[in-house]
């Protein structure tokens, strides 16, 4: 009888262990899926500045199961975060995507974000859910003009064929502001950067705008081949532009940035990493911490040229929208150290 009890007990224990293991494995699987956090970063066209920067950031902050780099330090985002860079039409479309919940976060120009939160310019009403994670790097306004057009100044663009940039792009928003400030009317079109380059090479386009951190590869190619040059944005027109546009500031494309081209006066915006205020505070805190982790600095330096300018000293300068609560907590903690 005692032996039967023993066997029976052992059998019961075995069954209990088996059930426990099945339950553990099952719940472990469920939990591993539940912990996965999809986090999108809307960027811009693949040929522009935003997409490669977005890819670099996504790689820094992602924290998939078993990644050694993430286990050794706080160099990644929250456990289970899978970030992805997504192509888009650009800053204007990105702001709307974050506002409406179609993207978790995005890159956008500071002048476009300023219009968005104020409900001015191209935005019919204030975009109330837009928050900032960080200001990332400066973006110069490039006014690229065909050398065969023999246009020596911005005022000579009157009546010429000019592409403002793709519809729903930040470049188009800024380009319109520039032409308005200079009181110019041109034969305007809305071409993607690739199409604008093709048209300029074919002689059917005199000039196009491009907003991006210099040097921009597609612009560099045109200048290097002698097909294009850059027009300065300066003088009284620039003063009017800056007086009526929040998020823009004076800048210069320095000599040597594009081959033998001398320094070119222009205006610039900041590239901002924006996020919805609906995103959890802890998630955004961990993402911001990962972005500025010292262990990730080399990865930024090895990334696209614009990513090298990302720094803690720039992150909160002249922001046109409030910081997200998670990012604000990170910067506050940094100051206490």
Summarize the structure.
With 337 residues, the chain is of the alpha/beta class. It has helices at residues 2-34, 50-61, 68-72, 91-99, 110-118, 170-181, 193-202, 217-224, 235-244, 281-291, 297-301, 325-336, and strands at residues 37-42, 81-86, 105-109, 130-146, 161-163, 187-189, 207-212, 228-230, 248-253, 264-276. It contains 12 helices and 10 strands.
Indicate the radius of gyration in whole angstroms: 25 Å
Unreliable spans are: 1-34
- Beta content comes to 15-25%
- The structural class is alpha/beta
**Strand count:** 10
| Count of DSSP H/I helices | 12
Distance between the termini: 70 Å
CATH topology of the largest domain: D-Maltodextrin-Binding Protein, domain 2
Which CATH first-tier class of the largest domain would you pick? Answer: Alpha Beta
Global shape: globular
Helix content: 40-55%
- Could you spell the SSE succession in H and E letters? HEHHEHEHEEHEHEHEHEEHHH
What do you see in this structure?
The protein is of the alpha/beta class and 337 residues long. It has 2 domains: 37-137 and 271-336, D-Maltodextrin-Binding Protein, domain 2; 139-269, D-Maltodextrin-Binding Protein, domain 2. The chain has 12 helices and 10 strands. Strands 1, 2, 3, 4, 5, 6, 7, 8, 9 and 10 form a 10-stranded mixed β-sheet that branches. Helix 6 links the parallel strand 5 (161-163) and strand 6 (187-189). It is globular, with a radius of gyration of 25 Å. The model is unreliable at 1-34 (pLDDT under 50).
């Amino acid at each position: 009888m005692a032996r039967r009890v023993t066997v029976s007990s052992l059998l019961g224990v075995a069954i209990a262990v088996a059930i426990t293991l099945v339950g553990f494995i099952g719940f472990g699987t469920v939990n591993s899926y539940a912990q996965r956090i999809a986090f999108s970063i809307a960027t811009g066209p693949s040929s522009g500045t935003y997409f490669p920067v977005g890819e670099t950031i996504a790689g820094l902050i992602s924290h998939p199961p078993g990644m050694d780099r993430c286990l050794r330090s706080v160099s990644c985002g929250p456990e289970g975060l899978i970030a992805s860079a997504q192509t888009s039409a650009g800053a204007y479309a990105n702001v709307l995507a974050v506002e409406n919940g179609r993207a978790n976060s995005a890159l956008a120009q500071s002048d476009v974000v300023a219009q968005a939160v104020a409900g001015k310019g191209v935005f019919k009403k204030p975009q109330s859910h837009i928050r900032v994670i960080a200001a990332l790097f400066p973006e110069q306004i490039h006014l690229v003009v065909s050398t065969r057009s023999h246009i020596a100044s911005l005022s000579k663009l009157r009546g010429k064929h000019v592409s403002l940039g793709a519809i729903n792009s930040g470049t188009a928003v800024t380009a319109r502001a520039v032409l308005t400030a200079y009181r110019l009317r041109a034969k305007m079109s809305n071409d993607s950067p690739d199409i604008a380059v093709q048209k300029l090479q074919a002689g059917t386009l005199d000039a196009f705008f491009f907003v991006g951190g210099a040097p921009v590869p597609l612009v560099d190619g045109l200048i290097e081949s002698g097909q294009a040059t850059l027009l300065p944005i300066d003088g009284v027109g620039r003063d009017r532009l800056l007086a009526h546009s929040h998020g823009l500031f004076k800048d210069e494309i320095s000599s040597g940035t594009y081959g033998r081209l001398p320094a070119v006066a222009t205006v610039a915006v900041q590239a901002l990493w924006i996020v919805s205020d609906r995103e959890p505070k802890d998630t955004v805190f961990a993402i911001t911490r990962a972005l500025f982790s010292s262990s990730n600095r080399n990865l930024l330096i090895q990334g696209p040229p614009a990513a090298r300018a990302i720094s803690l000293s720039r992150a909160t300068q002249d922001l046109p929208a409030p910081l997200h609560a998670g990012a604000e907590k990170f910067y506050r903690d940094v100051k206490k150290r």
